[in-house]
Amino acid sequence: MRETVVEFVEKAVKNAEISVTGLCQKAELPYSSLMRWKKRLKDGEPVLQVPGPKKVRTPDMGRLMAEIDGIRHRNNRSLGAFKLYRNFSEVISRRDFMGLVEMARKEKKAEARQLMRRIQWHTPGIVWAMDDTEYGRDYYRRKLFLHGLRDLGSRYTFPPLSSKEGVLHGEKVAANLGKMFKNYGAPLFLKRDNGSNLNHKAVDQVLNEHFVISLNSPKYYAPYNGSIEELQSELKSGLYEKLVDRPFLDVWTLGDAAGTSAHDLNHKKREVLAGKTACERFFSEKGGDYSRRQRERIFELLNGMAGDIIKGMKEDRSQLAYEAAWRISVETWLHNQGHICVSVNEKVLPYFFPILSHN
Fold this sequence. Notes:
The protein is α+β, with helices and mostly antiparallel strands. The protein has helices at about 1-15, 20-25, 30-45, 60-70, 80-90, 95-115, 170-185, 200-210, 225-245, 250-265, 280-285, 290-310, 320-335; strands at about 70-75, 80, 115-120, 125-135, 145-150, 155, 160-165, 190, 215, 340-345, 345-350.
């Protein structure tokens, strides 16, 4: 491109009888840049060069990449990158170094995605999930929050609730669950994270009254709760389109907009649902109509399965170990009943357990 510019200027000066300076002024082209490009062409150097001082030594790329791979890479940042750059600043520019860091971070993310266990939820009405997320601030700069609830088998989103200055109180979470169970029927399982409001005694009481089995996400492991994270992302995208012109919100406006956004999501055709909407799937294929006695038997079975797993752990019998054993038991039962499919790197995992019947 710059070679072409130099040639064009030389021809224009020759044919139009105009000085180089005058032509540069008319074309709004810096005279110094033109002279620099012309000199590089004459000397046989690349016309386009990376700005900044030239490095006098060639970096040891093997050592450099090993050091970059060794720092802690997060989703959007790599901790310790600038500190590491100081060790290599004499042999590589900061721009090139940060490009290598970004490339390494993307590779780490790709590897993590490949190793992540993915759960496909097949049966509507069996498992619901709930969680909270922050969304914006009101006029007084108080944080606003949304409480989301979704059926995982159909991706049907129940009307979200909004709150300010903190997540929705546990008693309100419990009241909302009771209302949803009455209107739509109680699921067999409820997934939730470890937030105090989601594990409030009032919430546990509602679950016990309807014989809904709790399934808590592991602490500090967001991918386990990926389905509800997807709900939050979809809700926020819809809300942004509806509230983009409102720099400040109030809790009522946010709640109304979230309800409209949830309605839109429920009537969106999805490839993962074979072209159906979440609304169609939830109301036409809903399962989970277990009697109280069946729910009791399933809970007893799962408790026994978790106990058998714990017995096989010779060293670790902590509360965390029991919670992990409980999740394995629930996952195994759901898989063998055909309600879910678990895969790693698109390869379906087999499940084997001696006790499967709940009748």
